Amino acid sequence: MRMRWKLLGLAGVAGVAATGVVVARQRREHQEMTPDEMRDRLHSRLAEISPKDGDSPSESDVVHDP
To answer: Is-contact 41 33, C-beta < 8 A?
Structure first.
């Protein structure tokens, strides 16, 4: 019975460590991009989406930074 609890504890520690690694990688990816790069990326992704039933925003709805 003790061995089960030890294995469960080790599995929990490994899970927490793995989650921390994933979060750190995602945060690092976001920090490497400048706000202008992020904005350009989002605009290109928006342009790739095909409009469905006229749901796409019109040019007057899109906010452009000066």
So the answer is: yes
Query: What is the DSSP-derived secondary structure letter of residue 62?
Result: S
Can you tell me which residue has the tokens 């928006």? 46
pTM of the predicted model over 0.70: no
Which residues fall within 8 angstroms of residue 65, CB to CB, at 6 or more apart? 39
Buried b (16+ CB within 10 A) or exposed e, 4-40: eeeeeeeeeeeeeeeeeeeeeeeeeeeeeeeeeeeee
Interval 29-65: pLDDT, tens: 666 778 888 889 889 988 888 565 555 556 556 666 6
Amino acid at 40: D
